[in-house]
Amino acid sequence: MSYKCDCYKLIEKKAISAGMFSFTIYCPEVANLAKCGQFVHILVPGFTLRRPISICEVNRDKGTIRIVFEIRGSGTDKLASINVGDDIDMIAPLGNGFSVLDIADGKRIIVIGGGIGVPPMLETAKSYKKATALLGFRSYDKVILTKDFEDNGIETIVCTDDGSVGISGTISAPLKAELEKGDVAAVFACGPKPMLASVISLAKEYGVYSEVSLEERMGCGVGACVGCVCKIMRDGEEKMLRVCKDGPVFKGEEVIL
Amino acid sequence: MKDLSVKVAGVTFPNPVIAASGTYGFGEDYAPLYPLNKLGGISCKGTTMNEKPGNIPPRIAETTAGMLNAVGLQNPGVEVFVNKYLPELKKQGNVIIANVAGATLEDYRNIAERLDSTDVDMIELNISCPNVKQGGATWGTSCEGASTVTKAVRAATKKPIMVKLTPNVTNVVEIAKAVEAEGADCLSLINTLLGMRIDIRTKRPILHNNVGGFSGPAIFPVAVRMVWQVANAVDIDVVGMGGISTAEDAIEMMMAGAKAVQMGTAIFTDPYSPLKVIDGIEKYMIENNIENLSEITGSVKPW
Fold first, then answer.
1. Which domains, ranges and CATH numbers included, belong to chain A?
2. Contact A199/A209 with Cβ under 8 angstroms?
């Protein structure tokens, strides 16, 4: 596993929704290594711990990566105040991303994202010839990136908890309907735990391979401090594995939520 | 090029900056960034006799100028350390301190015996971990407990023993003297202070363990004070730690009486920080015409 730790220039910054920001960072050496589902660990000046943020898009030709994050506290608030042209100190790329599998012709994958779990699913969907995106949000004002998915030729289904846009309710019913069609080779998901639990159980019911991305309060980001563990069933035993280095993406069948 | 080497309890470290136990794993996680032998040494993750799963997450919480952790000594056990990690670390020329933790006296004795025939350069006795229910700091918070463990381990190994002290006591000097009397070769301090954070929306402590070890720049002055008190009271070497993040901090800690320093939380903020501290110490030596770092150790002039 190779990663870099350096300062890289912020070259584009956009507010894409209330409290949600998109950063494009010029970092050719990171872009060369980065895979879908990996994350960057950003040092916000004045804070002891870095902030892990998933990679939303990678552009190797331009030497850039894109991240999308939500202001959740004082750290991300400060991060949002960084200006274009300023340096961002980051350790990247980190963790194991989503698998890019060989999919038989006529088959497709489904990516599922919930809220701030949507961004890593964009690069994941782009890594496949045929993908459908199932994106869940609390309400219309929280919807992000749907145009980005559509612009990349990804069939996109939006759900909102309050029904203010798209399908009313969680992604469970539309996911079941998609799986019924019988042409799904794998499902990949990032979002809140109840959503992941539903994805894992539906994938199992339909005998479809699944991977999910987990989140936990993180220290070092590289595996040294063993702070961000999650329970994983592997080799017949329950293990405490590190979200940052062993994950953040795990096989659905291994995850104990 | 200045000679930055220091000798602690007879062991020579190429420079005085050691990665602190629990913050650097067994080194491999930072290997993509720089050769690990640029460090003075590595104090490896606290190791128990058998594999230990550690505490339920969340294990990490941020604080102003610091953090809390309640990892609970998750580690693969002494055999994995000896067979998998240690040979690799020694091959790269690192000075290695094995950090030993146990629940019972028997545990400490057995691990020390197991390590006696290995290549570890020093054994650091962890009697100060605040995050485990059995052992850990329960040994380190009384003179009796601390001296009992030190005596048992002394009898089990010829390796130099460094006893890591907890700051969560009324009088750290008494404990330092007690372990010195039982044959400790040197001391390291301070381990983390016991702390707590609460999420005011959920009324839940952020750590699942409710409380955890507080580290980072915020605890630095407490560490300097305790190192100064202990270094003045014992004859054995003292390694200072607690919130060091700059070369100035490291030099200050050495002036308080430390022969070497350990860095931990600062590595999370900046993985290169130990190397920056090493460079900064060398610069200070050049600017102040210092030939040997022993000139700095204990050089504070108290009022």
1. 4-94 (2.40.30.10), 98-213 (3.40.50.80), 215-257 (2.10.240.10)
2. no
> Chain B 177-236, CB below 8 Å of chain A: which residues?
206, 216-217
Looking at CA atoms only, how far is residue B44 from chain A in angstroms?
10
pLDDT exceeds 80 at position B135? no
User: Whole-angstrom Cα distance, residue B188 to residue B186?
Assistant: 7
Do B269 and A240 lie within an 8 Å CB cutoff?
A: no
The pLDDT, as a whole number, for residue A58 is 98
Instruction: State the pLDDT at residue B214.
Output: 98
Could you report the per-residue pLDDT of B33-53, keeping only the tens digit for each?
A: 999 999 999 999 999 999 999
B24 in contact with chain A, both atoms CB, cutoff 8 A: yes
Domain count, chain B: 1
By residue range, what is the domain housing residue B230?
6-295
From chain B, the residues in CB contact with A220 under 8 A are: 23, 29, 267-268, 271
Q: Is residue B23 part of a domain?
A: yes
Residue B300 counted as domain residue: no
Looking at residue B186, which CATH number applies to its domain?
3.20.20.70
State residue B129's pLDDT score.
75
What are A83-114's pLDDT values in tens digits?
Answer: 999 999 999 999 999 999 999 999 999 999 99
For B134, the 3-state DSSP assignment is coil
Cβ atoms A92, A40 nearer than 8 A: yes
pLDDT tens-digit readout, B63-111:
999 999 999 999 999 999 999 999 999 999 999 999 999 989 999 999 9
Backbone φ, ψ for residue B206 (5° rounding):
-65, -40
**Cβ neighbours around A84 below 10 Å, total:** 11
The residue written with tokens 């660990």 in the block is A41
With an 8 Å Cβ cutoff, are A5 and B272 in contact? Answer: yes
How far away is chain A from the Cα of B232, in angstroms, using its nearest Cα?
31
How would residue B134 be classed by pLDDT, with cut points 50, 70 and 90? low
Chain A residues in contact with B75 by the CB 8 A cut-off are: 226
Sequence-ordered list of residues with C-beta below 8 angstroms from that of B109, at least 6 positions apart, any chain = B152, B153, B155, B156
User: Which residue from A minimizes the CA distance to B266?
Assistant: A48
